[in-house]
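# step 3/5: fold
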Amino acid sequence: MDLTPSLAVVEARRRQGEALLQNRRLVLCSSSWPLLVSQVCVLQHGPKLLGACTTEEEGLSLVLRHRPELLICQDRLDEGNGINLIRRCKAEQPNLRTLLIVREAQRFAWKQVLHLGIDAACSGKQLGRGVVLKALENLEHGGCFIDPALRSDDSLTQPQLTGREQQVLEGLQHYESSKQQARRLGLQLSTVKGYQRQLYSKLGAHCSTQAVLIGLQNGLLQAD
């Protein structure tokens, strides 16, 4: 396959990624030494790269030592795994933002995303196709991102939302408060809060971030 026509697009994505990561404090953890080296080289001019490693324990040590803003890691590491690394790091630094690169999508358990603090997850097979850039854009605005390629449609039952519940969910994705939603929809504040309670119940969510994440997983929302 001749990728020459795509080089300009790849370069544009690289520059956008650098801009999003500009001066961000970052730690990388990957089992792939060539990938780790290539990412270190690519990220030299964007974020403040505080450390790079290949194992869970090294990753935890780097996070505890440097207190980065963002941790990017693979699910499978030379020793340990990225999902457990994220869980341990979040316990020590709850405000840490995390991006998980998933090597085996078919073995990725969605419930772990909801409960272990994974803010964004991308399929390793989609790298270079703009998916990491989309994840970074969502993280930049305080949101979450799940690569559609990771979604196992046969394991998900899409909740059935009413029109109003869908509008409320879309408002949550854009960080609208209950008062803002009430003004936009022309409803009483109590009515909007009632729709939110119904929405959370249908999705099995406990907060707006979790509701949006489940909405993205189930195809109820499109990633911005």
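# step 4/5: annotate
The chain has a mean pLDDT of 82.
# step 5/5: archive (pending)
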